[in-house]
Amino acid sequence: QVQVVESGGGLVRTGGSLRLSCEASGRSFLVYKMGWSRQSPGKEREFVASLDWRTEIPTYADSVKGRFTVSKDHARNMLFLQMTNLKPDDTAVYYCELKTSPVGSYNYGGQGTQVTVSS
Contacts from 50-54 at CB under 8 Å and sequence distance 24+? Predict the structure, then answer.
């Protein structure tokens, strides 16, 4: 069984920074991609960023480009999201997602961590 656990959320003022962490653990599995999505109250869940595990090529939503950086610790199957210049619109529950198959989409996800940006 594979588990995905996020951490690092919190309350920060506009312009501040936060670093989210995500760890995937469990019985033997391969990581093909990990990523972050977020959901604000009353809104659809939206893509934030992802990282191809082999090529290490990141992908970002337009709304976070230049402010968020995704990185990994390969040895520990950990994914990080460094968020800078945070805005109130970034307030959401942030979810980590894991893809352990070469085909299809993400097949595991975490419970989420709350990020609140005050104005």
Answer: 50/97, 51/79
